[in-house]
Hints:
This protein has ten helices and 15 strands. By secondary structure, the protein is of the alpha+beta class. Strands 5, 6, 7, 8, 9, 10, 13, 14 and 15 form a nine-stranded mixed sheet that branches. A four-stranded antiparallel sheet has the order 2-3-1-4, with helices on one face. It has a two-stranded antiparallel sheet with strand order 11-12. Helix 1 (23-38) runs antiparallel to helix 2 (67-86). The mean pLDDT is 94. It binds 1,3-dihydroxyacetonephosphate (13P) (2 copies) and magnesium ion (2 copies). Residues 11, 14, 18, 52, 91, 94 line the site of one magnesium ion.
Amino acid sequence: MRTTLSVIKADIGSLAGHHIAPPQLLDVAKQELTRAKKEGLIEDFYVTNCGDDLELIMTHTKGEGNQEIHTLAWETFRKAADVAKELGLYGAGQDLLSDAFSGNLRGMGPGFAEIEFEERPAEPVVVFMADKTEPGAFNLPIFRIFADPFNTAGLVIAPTLHRGFTFEILDVMEGKVVELDTPEEMYDLLALIGTPGRYVIRRVYTREEPRDVAAALSTTRLNLIAGKYVGKDDPVAIVRAQSKFPALGEILEPFAFPHLVAGWMRGSHHGPLMPVSEKDAKPSRFDGPPRVIALGFNIKNAKLIGPSDLFADVAFERARALANEIADYLRRHGPFMPHRLGAEEMEYTTLPQVLEKLKDRFRTVEGA
Ligand code: 13P
Ligand code: 13P
Ligand code: MG
Ligand code: MG
């Protein structure tokens, strides 16, 4: 049976600043998706939020990029945005960039990751959702999951994983993609994805035949508006687990290291990516530090079994403690790089005005 898992998200308003999508918005989404399930448009759903981003996790049999599914998500976000406006929430309708929706969410503001697959007898998946960061934040953990033998033991010891994986990389500036095979092209891959603001992992495939999608990440808006900086999109990702894919624990292990990502406070600062439970996904310290949640499901006959709140585990407490320590350290840099992002990557800047104001006061000095 071919099932599609669609994870579609948007920031459509937040309580008391950018830190949480309140229950009233989740209620709208639950109502709309309950109706869609009754009507048979979708098979199942789960609604959650990571910080101020509202996430619709849906299963159906209509394939990727389906017009009816995208319209359902769009209309759901619009209705929730109306409630956000009524409640006077902050940034109501923030991610709904256009009024002219034509059936596909590409370029419209919401982000989405979708995978259509033939269901295995047991089909475990992990859905990752992050706030106060950008899609490139997943480059490091996704690399480690699918290409680092020190993370994923299966690459070395499991015959089903031993051939490695193919990574599809999006060049955000050129709007082009390239596929690279690991382990052979690992160094080329790292040469690209080590610049996560420009080169973003978009999909991962098995190399073992038949080639199958192992992971999908939301890079939607970035993809469309190539050639200019379009701000940070809080990303989502789907990763399939077990048998010919990495084991659940191999998929979660990279998040035990809270690596630095871009997108904290005003989309303009680096901070550690803190793995948290659903209930702790409310970034309030300096609007952060950036958060990631992970929900584990099994999919059976297109129904969602679960979820399990995967970072609600004492084993991630040290990652959280380390993230807090890194946050303290970075915050002491105030407006200085590398806590603050480079000028070309910032969502806000006053630099042009400052330079304009000071232009007549800059003097040329000899020998400088
Ligand atoms: P089980 O032997 O519990 O199925 O676990 C296999 C596995 O992949 C653990 O990482
Ligand atoms: P979001 O992108 O999550 O809306 O955050 C905006 C911001 O810059 C908060 O400081
Ligand atoms: Mg917001
Ligand atoms: Mg957000």
